[in-house]
Amino acid sequence: MFRSFTNVNYRIWFLGALVSNIGGWMQATAQDWVVLTELTDNDATAMGVTMALQFGPPLVLVSLTGWVADRFDRRRILLLTQSVLMLLALGVAALLLTGVMTLPLMFCFALAFGITNAFDAPARQAFVSDMVTLEDASNAVALNSASFNMARLIGPAVGGLLIVAVGTGWVFVVNAATFLAMLVALMLIRRGELIPRAKNSGRGGLAEGFRYVWARSDLKVVFVMVFLIGAFGMNFPIYASTMALEFDREADGYGILSSILAIGSLAGALLAARRDRARVRVLIVAAGLFGAASIVSSAMPTYGTYAAVLVVVGFSTVTMLTTANGYVQTTTDPALRGRVLALYMAVVMGSTPIGAPIAGWITDAAGPRAAIIFGGVAGLVAAGVGLTWIIASGRLRRETGARFRLTLDETRPITIAPVDPVEFSDEVAAATTPIRTERAD
Questions:
Q1: Is 159 helix (H, G, I), strand (E, B) or coil?
Q2: What's a Gene Ontology MF term here (predicted)?
Q3: The whole model's pTM is what?
């Protein structure tokens, strides 16, 4: 389960990311609460607009961010983006503490966070493959998710308590300080032990990555499923905050809901770390479970019962995202990994500008329970898309010798030859035949 920890660079990265992620979840809780209760009168639509501005840039800038992640030193990219994010957090803190923050200003900061994260996310995802071998990449992705969700257990609850105790501005100050952990980790990483990257001239840009994805039906199905749930199901800040208000809870009640969601998320990430490789079939089951659990949660009559079902929602969400991320990383040509991951992150983060305003509008018009049901249905549709692909591709078939027993063909892992950084050149890359898969799952 923890085999990636044998790599010293990954251990350093993991600890730095854990501290930084705790601060990030504290800030996310504070930002949502500021927009919902301090800058508006419980306006869920304003929250949706804030989320759209923050998660829209990965979709708009995907042609540039993926190329940057493939072309330049990812460690240096992360040093720059993490520094900018720290400065932005300090800027929000200053405006909140001086009492001059307005909703339009918060919208501007949300957009600035989104632009910076658009460059940070694909570089961060692809940097994992620079630290560990291909065989450990899926495990490292799952452990990254575990770190993210361990932080989610702590960050929202602590953030909610700090909001009540000292105010939202100081939460942004604390988050700015936690960025130092990631910056120190990036400085301590042993650059000489990073895995050499395949050289690529990048002449094809994003179009090359798009053609690669378009030629593989399995990746197209993964992207569609993630889009449906990312756009319409994963609007947790809107759902949890408005449900907390419906149950007459304050910021600490909202923070606790986010932390409870992370209990299931952490379990899903740790379970994913035990798997030898990522499979689309797991993604399909997780999507169906997400849809069913979301619909059940919308019918819960009390704060406690709603929180209990959120554990299942969190488990299914992270199982789905971790499986999708690991699958994309481990089955993609290394020379195109940054661009393909930029497309993937554009789908995950860029789907929010489409779904979040819709979720906010439904919440304002019909209540949070109706919005949650809408997201749950999207999860069931995503599972249906994946199941239809498996059946149409011929992978699901009747087992020989058993009339009523079905079997599903096993995934065939892709083996990628190690790259010699001295001998591998752009000319060799240009003559290399792209990886093709016949039965990738």
A1: helix
A2: transmembrane transporter activity
A3: 0.66
